[in-house]
């Protein structure tokens, strides 16, 4: 259900990260126009899919173009949320669409890098496509578990750590530099190791939150039972 529009977009608190602040300025003129957050999510998805495709072609300049599109897609990813916040158009469906687009683009990004590396290093011990798939599946698991945690405790439970206006996902802005410096192979290897490890961490955190929620539910049930007995 759509929330009521705030009387003044400037009354909405300023984002903490630099790319979200830039996105806020880009979408502020769109308030009151037919453009909706879902339109921007679709734009982000289209740019990300194109970026992943160009990455997979195995050609240096096509890969560089793909990396630039992925970086642009990462910036556009902030525009839908910012427009939703300042225009009062937030919705559960829109939020789910945004998460699904994020997951799809990120998974295909790593698969695309895997195909690119496979063209240039076909004799790796572990095929590069497999490394891309490992990183992609791990990222998909991370998105799923974070969505589950968010459904239990709200967005505060999945908020990324930030420092000096940067978040972990902002490493994607460096992807064009990695491409130009021919660093895709070590980037892929690092992702195929780091993403599964982070997925394990998120899985442990999910189990912790799930256990806490069960304990709270049991405590609430016990309190209600005691109150009922006291009334009797």
What does this structure look like?
The chain has 232 residues and is mainly α. The chain has one domain: CDP-alcohol phosphotransferase transmembrane (TM) domain (Four Helix Bundle (Hemerythrin (Met), subunit A)), CATH 1.20.120.1760. Helix content is 72%, strand content 2%. The protein contains 7 helices and 2 strands; from the N terminus they run αααααββαα. It has a two-stranded antiparallel sheet. Helix 4 (92-120) runs antiparallel to helix 5. The protein is flat, with a radius of gyration of 21 Å. The chain starts with 17 loop residues before the first helix and ends with a helix. 33% of the residues are buried. One of its GO terms (biological process) is phospholipid biosynthetic process.
């Amino acid at each position: 259900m759509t929330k009521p529009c705030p009387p003044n977009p400037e009354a909405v608190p300023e984002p903490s990260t630099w790319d979200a602040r830039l996105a806020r300025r880009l979408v502020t003129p769109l308030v009151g126009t037919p453009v909706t957050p879902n339109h921007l999510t679709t734009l982000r998805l289209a740019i990300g899919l194109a970026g992943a495709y160009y990455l997979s072609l195995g050609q240096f300049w096509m890969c560089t173009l793909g990396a630039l599109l992925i970086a642009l897609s990462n910036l556009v990813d902030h525009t839908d949320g910012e427009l939703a916040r300042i225009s009062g158009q937030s919705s559960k469906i829109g939020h789910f669409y945004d998460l699904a687009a994020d997951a799809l683009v990120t998974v295909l990004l790593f698969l695309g890098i895997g195909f690119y590396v496979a063209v240039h290093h076909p004799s790796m011990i572990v095929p590069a496509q497999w490394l891309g798939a490992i990183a992609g599946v791990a990222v998909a698991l991370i998105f799923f578990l974070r969505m589950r945690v968010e459904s239990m405790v709200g967005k505060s439970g999945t908020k990324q750590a930030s420092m000096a206006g940067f978040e972990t996902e902002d490493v994607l802005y460096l992807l064009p530099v990695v491409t130009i410096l021919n660093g895709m192979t070590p980037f892929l290897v690092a992702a195929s190791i780091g993403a599964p490890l982070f997925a394990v961490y998120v899985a442990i955190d999910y189990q912790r939150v799930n256990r806490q929620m069960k304990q709270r539910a049991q405590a609430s049930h016990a309190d209600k039972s005691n109150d009922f007995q006291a009334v009797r």
